[in-house]
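Summarise this fold before class:
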Amino acid sequence: MDHFQYKHGIYHAEDMPLDTLATLVETPFYCYSAATLRHHAQVFMRGIAGLNHRVPPKICFAVKANPNPHVLRLLKEQGLGADVVSEGEIRLALAAGIPAQDIVFSGVGKKRQEMRFALQCGVFQFNVESAQELHVLHEEAQGLGVLAPIALRVNPNVDAVTHEKITTGRKDSKFGIDIEQASEIYALAHSMPYIKVQGISVHIGSQLTQLEPFARAFARVRDFVLEMRAQAMPIDVVDLGGGLGIPYHPEHAALPEPDGYGAMICEAMQGLEAHYVFEPGRLIAGNAGVLVASVIYTKEAHDAQTDVTHRFMIIDAGMNDLMRPAMYGAHHEIVPVSEAHHHATHVSQHVVGPVCESSDVFLRHHPLPLLHEDDLVVIRSAGAYGASMSSTYNARLQIPEVLVDGTRMTIIRPRETYEEMLARY
């Protein structure tokens, strides 16, 4: 559920008409709904309420999905912490007011200076992904005279049944430690005086649309935790990562919901007492944001051999602003801001951006109304891995981000200027 819909003939973010926003901010820009972010956080918390054992589950929003400090601050107010993968993300989380004890430091390639910074801050947990990382972390903790709280991120060798580029739980993945090797590394960690073994972590992929891969992975984790506890390994924290998918396409309307996800976990873990941690990102932010763009030009090309007319809608947002379609072949629904256009006759079109790459395509052969210069369109489901993956390729300026809360709007990242662009060099 989100708070983007047609009202009075115009597409709105909550109570703010997007044509008004476009006049104030100019396209392209990202627009986030505060009400949707809050709602998604609350729905997820309710879904995992059954795992409230000695302490409530810790929910750490995956900062990589949307690192804007205004978004992080809003989620912090809902009780969420932060899952981070770099010193930069730690600093963003802290700047948003998230306590270090609510920050989990993940990532396969943590550098020494990042470890030192995290240790000095006092983060809740390092999710360690290799024996070499463990040795380096111990050296850095020893140098500071502090304990490093760790979980091992285990790789359960489970196919997440998702896109090849966002699956992370198989043996051929760069992420995690093979679960068959983990007991040896736990023993090593337990022998290190400046390492505090406290948990286990698992994350098998992103945008999962089925619960069964989760269930298989979590059952393996449960069995392994019981085995390690039988050997007196103090594994209290069970970090189950994130990965639950969202509906990018109308056909995805029946995806698993957080309550079903929570019930599946209760069944898979079979009452395993633990302090549970979760790292949702896309599930919270994905459908809480859209990318608003304007039509620049339209054109047609007729292929006589196939008798197909290719119609192109060229918009002012490009693959540098929203990389997912070019990188993953991801589908994002596109709708006109005008409801009258939405109900007009649709014809097959390609929606493309202005970037000098053939892959700068948002939709191919997709039915849409025939629009004209300056007409506005909305690219849906762009609140996660949109702005955070954007670039300045082709010397294009970073675009604004706007947060709408009811009838109020706040520019939470202004459009970059050409002077700021030149100052980078």
